[in-house]
Amino acid sequence: MSAEPSIDLHTHSNCSDGSLTPAELVSRAAAADIDVLALTDHDTIAGLTDAAARADELGLRLVTGVEISAGWRAQAIHVLGLWIDPANPALRRALAAQAELRSLRMRRICARLSAVGLPGERLLAAVEANPGLPTRSHLAAALVAEGIVSRTDEAFRKYLRRGRAAHIAAEWPALATVVGWIREAGGIASLAHPARYAISAGARRQLLAEFAAAGGTAIEVVTGANAAHHVEACAQWAIKSGFTASVGSDFHHPQHAWNPLGRLAKLPPGVTPVWRSHGL
Fold it and tell me: How many CA atoms are closer than 13 Å to the CA of 75, on its beta-carbon side?
C-alpha cells in the first residue's frame, strides 16, 4: 500500500501577505516533502502561474487556489477556493473588485493615521511598495519599520484593531456571493479556520448552515496553530453538517514557528478528505 500523500491546502506568498515568492514557497514545500500544495493568497491569483511553473519543475502537484474575504454579520470571514479555474472571467472581475476594496481601505486607514499625527502618506507608500495586494499586515510591518511600534501585534493593539483610531471596517461582499464566485470558477468552497472566528456557538452553527446553503461543501479541520480540541471540534462540525474536511498550514513566513509547512496533524477519523473527489 502506498503512503498517504503529504497535503497542505492553505498557504500564502508575497502576492498577498506572505514573505516568499510563489516559486520560493513551492521550493520550500518540496523541501518539506509536501506532495500536494495549494497557493491560496488573499483575494488574488497573481502568483499561480509562477507557482505552477516551479511545481512542474519539482514534480509537486499544485492546487490552484485563492482565499477570498467575505462579510457575515459584520464579521470578516475567509473562504478558500480550491481547484478553481484561474482563467474564469467572472472570478477575475470579482478579484479585481476585491483589490480595489483593499486599496481604498488602506488609503482610508493611512489617512486616519495621519489625523493622529503619524506619517500616513509615508506608511501608505511603504505598503504600496510591496509586490502583493495591500493588507493590514503590511501596514503593521511598516509601523514597525518606522519605529512607531516595536512589534506588529502592537500595531494592531494600538492603532488597527476595532475600536482604535485607525480602524476601518472592511465592506466585503456577502458570504453567499463569494461562495458563488468560487463555484462559478469550478472550485470547491472551503471555510477557512472555522474555530478562529470570535462568535458564539449559536452564531457559528448559523454560519455553517448559511455557508452550506450558499453551496459551500468543505471546512478546514486542521490548520496552523489549531490545538487538538479545535481539530476535534471542527471534525464534529464537518460530520454533523456534511462537509468534507481540508487541511492547511496557513503558512505566511518561515520564521513563524506555529504554522510550518509539512507538519500538519492528520485528519481525525470519521471525516471525508476534500481531496478524495480529486483522486488523491
Answer: 14
CB 146 within 8 A of CB 159: no
- Between the alpha carbon of residue 163 and those of residues 28, 57, 174, 177, the distances in Å are 38, 48, 23, 28
> Cell 488523491 sits at which residue?
280
The whole-angstrom separation of Cα 103 and Cα 96 is 11
Q: Which domains does the chain have, with CATH numbers?
A: 7-94+172-278 (3.20.20.140), 100-160 (1.10.150)
For the chain, the residue count is 280
Average pLDDT over residues 29-38: 97
- pTM given for the model: 0.93
- Is the predicted pLDDT of residue 124 greater than 90, yes or no? yes
How far is the first Cα of the chain from the last one, in angstroms, to the nearest whole number?
Answer: 14
In the block, which residue shows the cell 484593531?
Answer: 161
3-state secondary structure the chain: CCCCCCEECCECCCCCCCCCCHHHHHHHHHHCCCCEEEECCECCCCCHHHHHHHHHHHCCEEEEEEEEEEEECCEEEEEEEECCCCCCHHHHHHHHHHHHHHHHHHHHHHHHHHHCCCCHHHHHHHHHCCCCCCCHHHHHHHHHHCCCCCCHHHHHHHHHCCCCCCCCCCCCCEHHHHHHHHHHCCCEEEECCCCCCCCCHHHHHHHHHHHHHHCCCEEEEEECCCCHHHHHHHHHHHHHHCCEEEEECCECCCCCCCCCCCCCCCCCCCCCEHHHHHCC
Cβ 109 vs Cβ 160: under 8 Å: yes
> Percentage of the chain with pLDDT > 90?
88
Find residue 155's DSSP bridge partners: none
Grid cell locating 56: 512542474
